[in-house]
Write a structure and sequence with these properties.
By secondary structure, this protein is an alpha/beta fold. It has 2 domains: 235 residues, 3-Layer(aba) Sandwich (Aldehyde Dehydrogenase, Chain A, domain 1); 198 residues, Aldehyde Dehydrogenase, Chain A, domain 2. Helix content is 44%, strand content 18%. The longest helix is centred in the first third of the chain and has 27 residues. It is globular and about 90 Å long. It starts with a strand and ends with a helix. The relative contact order is 0.13.
Length: 485
């Protein structure tokens, strides 16, 4: 198959353009791939994940310093195989043309036809992030390949071992004109974002997305942006606090909170704040009796991110927040091999603190209180629309109010993050948290061109002739009818 692509700062634009040109030429040469071909591509991806599962765990552990092997299997290996299998099982159904009614309807009765055919766009550029580098490469590929596209992938330089492994993996079973992986630093990523793809998907920070969008605009490349933001949790007065806290802290400590959908702040009833703290502390203690050398507890990926997260805590402490570090074994983290930060609650967080302004992306959780549910909803609406919103409770009227009066990319009720695991649901943001969506059928649609096809009557008959000059009573009658309310 193709040799791995290794591009430096010089000449990478020309080299990437050459790969893109070959992929586009192959797409034109071969036309839209059959269902069998698409299933074969999906099977190859599944095989890569199964055959390299241990290597993927090793690479992620190396890149993070410490990455839970079970979490890596759950999120990056199994979590990638599921979408690929789902696409494989459904692609034949998704590919079928969709019949539409004709306008005016009488043309359809006389034999005219209207339909939509789902056509591959061509080559899709994939810029994947460091937090789940395997999953956020392979999960989009489920829709990209099911739609019949080819792909060029730029994985993150923050997880270099995993990125190089993926480059080697894909090169084993895909020709360069099918899937190519390009590694490199920010200058390579910048050039990659400016290539004239037929579609591009970027997963990462909103600040970087602005640069990606500007670069894509030069070639009018359509974009799917999967970003993040500050996903809120609203705990209702009606919630079972023990269950809510356990599920919130499970989501917050998975991958050490380095998840775009991680709960970013909690809105708790004022009279139940200490109850939440007690239950959250108990939940973390049960999951992680120790933290420092516990292989289940993931480290922060890089020193710059460690310093950033610690800075949020220091800033909040300096501005009067109540800091509750959850450290079950009372371990000393001042000297450690890796970059682990204990789960930390910041109570009474105020809007002048950086922890309430920036996406945290770490094991720190801001906690605010409210007196009424409306107050919590108003606070959410006063800020950017988030990627995810979470509500815990049993009060159906309150749940309906929260759903109807807030806007977010997606919602999970009585848990966090879990809506992303549903292949039948679209995954995407809104506004600053992203645009476009994928997963399942929605991914197939996102990466397909919906080609409108109208087939006219074979013979010129009355309804067609009356639309041509010289105009007469027939068209005046038709136009008169159309102008009625």
């Amino acid at each position: 198959m193709n040799a791995p692509v290794n591009l430096g700062a010089e000449g990478h634009t020309a080299a990437m353009l050459a790969i893109l040109d070959r992929q586009k030429a192959a797409h034109i040469r071969d036309g839209a791939p059959s269902a069998e071909k698409r299933i074969e591509w999906l099977d190859r991806c599944i095989g890569l994940l199964v055959d390299h599962a241990v290597e993927i765990q090793d690479a992620l552990n190396t890149d993070f310093g410490n990455r839970s092997r079970e979490a890596s299997l759950l999120t990056d290996v199994s979590g990638s195989i599921g979408p690929l299998k789902f696409a494989k099982e459904n692609v034949r159904k998704w590919m079928k043309a969709q019949k539409r009614k004709t306008t005016p309807a009488i043309l359809g009765l006389l034999g005219a036809k209207a339909e939509i055919q789902y056509q591959p766009k061509g080559t899709v550029g994939v810029i994947s992030p460091w937090n789940f580098p395997v999953n956020l490469t392979f999960a989009p590929l489920a829709g990209i390949l099911a739609a019949g596209n080819r792909a060029m992938i730029k994985p993150s330089e923050f997880t270099p071992v995993t990125s190089e492994l993926m480059k080697t993996m894909f090169a084993k079973v895909f020709a360069e004109e099918e899937i190519a992986v390009i590694t490199g630093g920010p200058e390579v990523g910048q050039a990659f974002a400016g290539l004239p793809f037929d579609h591009m998907i970027f997963t990462g920070a909103t600040s970087i997305a602005r640069h990606v969008m500007r670069a894509a605009a030069e070639n009018l490349v359509p974009l799917t942006l999967e970003l993040g933001g500050k996903s809120p949790v609203i705990i209702s007065q009606s919630a079972d606090m023990a269950t809510a806290a356990a599920r919130i802290m499970n989501g917050k400590t998975l991958n050490a909170g380095q998840i775009c959908l991680a709960p970013d702040y909690v809105m708790a009833p004022e009279n139940r704040l200490e109850e939440f703290v007690t239950e959250a502390t108990g939940a973390v203690t049960r999951m992680f009796p120790t933290l420092k050398d516990n292989p289940d507890y993931t480290a922060v990926v890089a020193q710059r991110h460690y310093d950033r997260i610690k800075g949020y805590i220091d800033d909040a402490r300096a501005k009067g927040a109540d800091i509750r570090e959850i450290n079950p074994a009372n371990e000393d983290f001042s000297q450690q091999e890796h970059r682990k930060i204990p789960p930390t609650l910041i109570l009474n967080a105020t809007d002048d603190m950086t922890v309430t302004q920036d996406e945290i992306f770490g094991p720190v959780l801001a906690v605010k209180t409210y007196k009424t549910a409306s107050e919590a909803v108003d606070y959410v609406n006063a800020h950017d629309r988030p990627l995810g919103l979470y509500w815990f409770g049993t009060d159906e009227a309150e749940k309906t109010r929260v759903l109807n009066h807030t806007t977010s990319g997606g919602v999970t009720i009585n848990d966090v993050i879990m809506h992303v695991a549903q292949e039948e649901l679209p995954f995407g943001g809104v506004g600053p948290s992203g645009m476009g969506s994928y997963h399942g059928h929605d991914g197939f649609l996102e990466f397909s061109h919906k080609k409108a096809i109208y087939t006219q009557l074979k013979k010129d008959i009355g309804p067609l002739l009356q639309m041509r000059p010289p105009y007469g009573p027939a068209i005046r009658k038709f136009l008169g009818a159309s102008l009625k309310r």
